[in-house]
Predict the structure.
Amino acid sequence: MKIELLNLTKTFDGSPVVNDVSLTVASGELFFLLGPSGCGKTTLLRMVAGFYEPDAGTIRFGERTMNGVPAHDRNTALVFQNYALWPHLTVYENVAYGLRLRKVPEPELDQRVTAALAQVRMTEQRERKPGSLSGGQQQRVALARAAVVRPDLLLLDEPLSNLDARLRVEMREEIARLHRAAATTSLYVTHDQEEALSLADRIAVMDGGKVLQVGTPLEIYHHPANPFVARFIGEMNLFPATGPLAHALGAPAVGPDSQAQIGFRPERVILVPNAESGGHPARVIGATFFGSRNQIVLRTPQGEEIKVATPDYLGEGTEVRFTVPPEHLLFFP
Amino acid sequence: MKKALPFLLAFFALFLVYPLVKVLGGSFFVEKIIDGHVTQIFSLDYYGLLFANPFYRECLGNSFLIAAWTTALTLILALPLALLFLRADFPAKTTLSALLLLPLILPPFVGAIGLKQCFARFGSLNLLLDHFHLIDPLHPPDWFGAGGFWGIVFLQTLHLLPILFLSVQAALANLDPALHDAARNLGARSLTVLRTVTLPLALPGIFAGGAIVFVSAFTDLGTPLIFDFQSTAPTQIYNLVNQSDNPLGYCLTVVTLAVVAVLFLLARWATRGDYAMLSRASAAGADGARKLSPLAGWAATLGVSLLIFVSVLPHLGVVIQSFAAKWFFTVLPSQWSASYYHEVFTLPLTGTSLQNSLVYAGAASLLDLILGLAIAQLLVREKFTGRSLLDALAMLPLALPGLVTAFAFLIAFSHGPFPVSSHGLAAAINTLWVACFDPRRNPTLLLVVAYALHRLPYLVRAATAGLEQMSVDLERASANLGAKPWQTLAQITVPLIAANLIAGTLLTFAFSLLDVSNGMVLAEESRFYPLTKAIYQLLGRITPEAPALACALGVVAMVFLGVSLTLASRLLGRKTGQLFRMG
């Protein structure tokens, strides 16, 4: 189902938390809201779920306007950050809850709950209470509970933020698999760029209650709309367009008072072997060894510091020359 | 849930605000004939009459003194007791702390019967002393002093001690142990820590508990009645009930109400920034209790046991009397019998009253469960205008003595809201009003409402505590999956806070069985008597078996109360004490 958000605004205690946000999520899309904490993404999600009423703007599911429709009539399914599993019900009953409300006949209900539990590999724990499950297991039950009702819209509120790194990767794949299988329109809130880049069909990057850019992971990574997006997604070297480095790298000329910036990703910096090959001189002032890709910090004679990601490891103090291919040089007017 | 708000407000308007306004109006407005017309004008004349009468002045003074002495004595006993139980380990501590609560399960006025048997002029103690020729049998000492004044104080102290003990213990247990550890760390001795840190921090909680004790003692009707101590404010209000056209009853009720209101406001003020609540203990009492040396430990055990023995003396008296076939001028009964327990259930008066009490208390608990849950849900989960009004209305009954509501109910519901001379619609409403409410026809509805109103704060508090501990997301998850609000309430919220709700309901039930004032005032015909009034009636009879029968009925009540309270405190654990405070 297509989801449309038109000029949504929500104010808490006088300060706008969501400020005039418009978005369209296509049917079957896995759409991400990505931003730092406090950017308004969770508030936006909770307005879509119906827990908060927007102060202004329209929410539309398909052709239906949802403003004023209570949460229990929206047929969304939300996976909560803290899972919100009911401690007094078994795993099975937690998952069956939504189907019982929908008066699904018992044989079909049992079959669907069993299938949903199998899908998240929780069949063995079906009679346990949530309190006795690990974080990852609780997360999987929460996913099953939401997915089993076949909602018009699946909402995920930072679903992986309470898991450790290894589980996070595992669950990421689980979610991707579930989404591929059901193709439910999904709205996924996170502050983790890796989750967004690896899973999303499209991403909306938010900050300060506003949407800064909407696009596919590739578009957002390669063509960030502004320095904030550029820095928030991956790493980015940013310099004033009026500076000597911009000039040296062949950036477009700007007036002396311009606030424009140039930017390039650390992995796009090329280290050249010697002066004959061209490039600009710099000295390594910091180096962190990571194995396949190492983090190097260069300083130019003019004092500009540049982050570089490279498979070669260079010790501190090494004199190098570097260049950035013009097609990877970004310009933010 | 917000849809419930108008119903709740209407309930409070009808059963709380209207009766009180009626009493206030009756005390401040005087009928005067001006130019041949009867008009109501505002006047303090009645209060002038009340305070000009030395007898009523004495009554108010006595009530005040009884309350003051009781509060002082319970505080003196409860503070060290609470500290001892919180900070020290000694033999049989758990058992003793449960036994300390025993006096709670006995209505003080039933205790008075037992106490009289033990300490009256020709009671067991004097007879025992006489046996050893220690006293002059012609002039036995009067243990109750001043016509029963000290007997009342003694009984009230014993009865209210557990409440204050629980309340003080809760206030102390709420303190973050880190606070007194910090003081010790800076070099303060134990007593200095107590004086400079512990007590100041716990003071609001202690004050709130003390206020409850003061109000209970000030407004208790049952105990002075049994001692036949006429000169207290409650006994006089009771005597004036039957003269509902006598405005002095109104005035006396309003003065009582004023005393209570002042204390209530003081308690609110004292707890306005309750530090104990602010710095909620991360691990309350986790620093553990100190083990006393064997000698000190046994001394503590012995001391507490002695206190418990004294405080269950009235109970013992009641139990012994209930089995006494013949007890006249002897230390212990000369003949024993269990037949009274059979009679309790078969005699019309006692059997009916037992049944009535169970019905009244059961219905009141159910009503409270519904009201309490709705109010707690609104207060915790919703934002709406009038929130603090609802909060105040729901908590007000805590400060409202049973006697005041009973009197106000009688005034407000015996007659319609419009003047007797009305016509048409107003007259029809009057007729309907009396048909629905008039306690002289059938007090069941009013008794149930009165019982429910009084214990409502316990349920609201218990439910509020449960809701506050429960994540809203658990309810949202249910709504999100398509559950209507009532489905979420029934399937998620109620099961999750069931322990709190059951405990609150049990407390309502137990204390409704205990209630004296409402039944005394509102139930006029014997077929509507609750068991407390049946006990009182039996005591007034001169047949030889009446006191024993009354005591047997009292013991049955004790059993009911004991079971409910035990279950409730099991469910609530150490939070029980927080229910017994004002503000």
User: Anything to note?
Assistant: Chain A has a mean pLDDT of 89. The first strand of chain A starts at residue 3 and ends at 12.
